[in-house]
Design brief:
27% strand; Conserved hypothetical protein from pyrococcus furiosus pfu- 392566-001, domain 2; 11 helices; Conserved hypothetical protein from pyrococcus furiosus pfu- 392566-001, ParB domain; 6-stranded antiparallel sheet; 21 strands; globular; 13-stranded mixed sheet
């Protein structure tokens, strides 16, 4: 029995609505700029308070505008409805192997967050509850799911990859294509009821699924009491993990005092005569006031291995113990792998942040191990690429 199902009422883009997902940005101003340049971007619905004509309003106060924008885009033919479908998904770019996925609906009651909680969908990261509440409010207002949860099929990944590749090769011209900010081309094909749909949903839902992206969206589906959530089920061969770094806009203490506190906490701190860069695993690099440091943070052998991963040590030792910052503090900006080390240093040099924290990416082996143990990674620690594009396939809620 599969936990992956067709979308009862899908709205499929006819072009011009695709966008990065709302949580892929280091700066809210980028979202406003994209909406200004692309008024039909799904970001205008996902983040209505950042649309140019809604600036100054709160997220909740902007929801009526989100409802109106989605209704208008449907009325103008920017989306077309299809019933009981799954959607083939292929992402291509020069020099990269194709990535594949299947847009579908997944049973919410299959989400598991611990070893004693049954379910085939493993959610692996802590979340920020404020973001979850926003996703719930948006889904209730527009009665539609706009962005997918990216799920990694762990049991039948190779078979699913081969089946998706064969299906897209035989599908002819795509229903729509979209090019993202990195130059990758996203193509979709609608698959109605029949043997192919049944084969793909069985493969996609035939084993454990790990949340690779969309922890907040999956919890929002649970919080809202939705029986199913919108997902793209992908394969291990289709993804890679990039660095997920941090910027601190304002240090609560002088730099030299921060370094002294790190050493007192057991860290090794070495200033290096070069620009800070993404480090090797088990060290981090810091950049502040034009100075670069390599830092080995102290592990606690009495804690589980997941609590001694680099991102966990940054959260516990650097942010909490040394700087006294809660992970949800507005001074902390979580910056994914689309933003390179030179961009992070530029934010510090430009005075928009005071500290850049550069962290090695979580390895695939660590990611799989932590999930199989039903433990949670720290917030914002895995930046999977390529990202599923928002605004291509929507799921209307019954």
């Amino acid at each position: 029995m599969t936990v992956v199902h067709p979308i009862s009422r899908a709205w499929v883009t006819t072009g011009g609505t695709g966008a990065q997902n709302y949580d892929e940005f280091a700066d809210d101003a980028e979202i406003t700029s994209i909406i200004a340049d692309n008024p039909h971007s799904s970001l205008a619905i996902e983040m209505p308070h950042l649309a140019p004509d809604s600036l100054g309003k709160s997220f909740l106060d902007s929801l009526p505008e989100a409802v109106a924008r989605l209704a208008l885009e449907r009325a103008e033919g920017l989306y077309t409805p299809s019933d009981d479908v799954v959607v083939l998904y292929r992402i291509t770019a020069a020099g990269e192997p194709p990535a594949y996925g299947l847009w579908s609906m997944v049973d919410t009651d299959q989400i598991s967050t611990s070893a004693d909680e049954p379910g085939l969908v493993i959610r692996n990261e802590d979340v920020f509850l404020e973001k979850v509440r926003e996703r719930v409010a948006l889904a209730e207002a527009v009665a539609t799911l706009l962005s997918p949860v990216l799920l990694l099929q762990t049991a039948h990944g190779d078979a699913l990859h081969a089946a998706l590749a064969a299906a897209t090769d035989a599908a002819g011209a795509p229903a729509a294509t979209d090019t993202d900010q990195t130059g990758r081309t996203h193509a979709i094909w609608v698959v109605g009821p029949g043997p192919l749909q049944s084969e793909l949903t069985a493969l996609a839902g035939g084993g454990e699924l790990v949340v690779a992206d969309g922890n907040h969206r999956s919890l929002a589906a649970q919080t809202a009491g939705l029986p199913r959530f919108l997902a793209v089920v992908t394969t291990p061969a289709s993804v890679a993990i990039q660095p997920y770094n941090r910027l601190v806009s304002e240090l609560p203490l002088p730099l030299d005092e921060m370094l002294a506190r790190l050493r007192a906490a057991g860290a090794t701190v070495t200033e290096v005569p070069r620009p800070a860069r993404i480090p090797a695993k088990s060290t981090i690099e810091l950049y502040a006031a034009g100075r670069s440091f390599t830092v080995g943070l102290p592990v606690n052998v009495n804690l589980p291995d997941v609590d001694n991963l680099d991102h966990a040590l940054v959260e516990r030792v650097l942010l909490r113990d040394v700087l006294g910052l809660d992970p949800g503090d507005k001074r902390i900006n979580y910056v994914g792998g689309d933003y390179p080390a030179e961009w992070l240093r530029g934010e510090v040099d430009g005075g928009r942040s005071e500290l850049a924290v550069l962290i090695a990416p979580v390895t695939v082996d660590d990611f799989v191990r932590v999930n199989l143990e039903r433990q949670k990674l720290p917030r914002k620690s895995t930046w999977f690429t390529p990202k599923a594009r928002g605004g291509l396939v929507l799921a209307q809620l019954d």
